[in-house]
Amino acid sequence: MKLSLPILLSFFAATAGAAQLTEAETRWLQAGAPVLAYAKQELKLPIDIVVQPQAGPNDVPLAMGFADGRCKLVFSMRGNPQAEQVLSGVPAEQQKVLIEAMTAHEVGHCWRQAQGSWHVLPAGFVEGPLEQLDNPELQALSKAMRDTRREEAFSDLVALAWTQRANAAQYDQVHAWLMQVRQPVEHGSHNTRAWLQLAANAAVFSSEHNPFEQARVLWGKGLLKDEQ
Questions:
Q1: Residue 45 lies inside a defined structural domain of this protein
Q2: Number of separate domains in the chain
Q3: Measuring CA to CA, which residue among 138, 120, 132 is closest to residue 220?
Q4: CA–CA separation, 171 and 118 (whole Å)
Q5: Which of 53, 174, 184, 199 is most buried, judged by most C-beta within 10 A?
Q6: What is the phi/psi pair of residue 224, to 5°?
Q7: How much is the pTM?
């Protein structure tokens, strides 16, 4: 589904200058339009788009927040070197499908929030204990990293399930890119490879359920693998 720029702008929260998008913002927004249209029209997800006039020092180009019962898809691309680096080395003609997958990833976070399942594990799943650390702050950080890794994994699976649905011919490309960018550091907050390895074959997303439900099924299997 292709949306015109005026229709896309209807997603924006009331933000001064929202209509004056940069070329990069316009390109990313249009690439992600099919996902946003599906989220809005089929799933009724409450998504606003916010463009930051200047990125902060630790901002990623695209992120999902949640405030006042609504999801906030935040573009932090202006003055942000990561906006160029994230697709470094990817041929221009292949970038659109990756941006669309990244948008699906962020919408996956919104779906979890809207379902009231943020940091909630599947029914019946019993997680193993964390390594016990003497420092309470490090212990809390370890738990936060595990929680973050699980949510990132869910949204990576949403990105792949969406790709299988909308851009099946590019599935292997998107999967390989995710495997490349995800941290190989053991137990890192974005080390989602335990889940990505389960989705090496696009056939795992062949059911008739929507991409978010498909991701949820495989996510539960990945939780068991991540515990090992």
A1: yes
A2: 2
A3: 120
A4: 27
A5: 199
A6: -65, -40
A7: 0.89
